[in-house]
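[Automated response] Your request has been received and processed.

Submitted sequence:
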Amino acid sequence: MDNGAHFFKCDFQVHSPRDINWRGRRPVSNDERKEYAKEFIQACRTRNLDAVAITDHHDLGFFPYIKEASRNELEQDGTNVSEKEQIVIFPGMELTLAVPCQAIVVFDAEFPVELLE
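Generated structure:
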């Protein structure tokens, strides 16, 4: 039985190329989005992040790509990263409520993707 405290390195305000304020390359095709998501997970791993929330402005469109990339991440030997070691991806959204008020909404990481629409 594990009764100890656990600490995780997380970033709960991450934007993707779908964000309206994104600067840089915007993956357009399905393959480009999947490749970007794979690179994103590698960047999270490099930064030792355990969890991130994808919080684009008023949009949840890129979340499924990053969630899939986390689930499909491979170890150096080509085996899948264990579920326990996967980077947790939370769906979220940054909402502009009124100038200058914004709110970050973060859903459960296991929230069904098909219900996000």
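Summary generated for your ticket: The helical segments are 30-46, 63-71. Residues 53 and 90 are 4 Å apart (CA to CA).
If you did not submit this request, please reply to this message.
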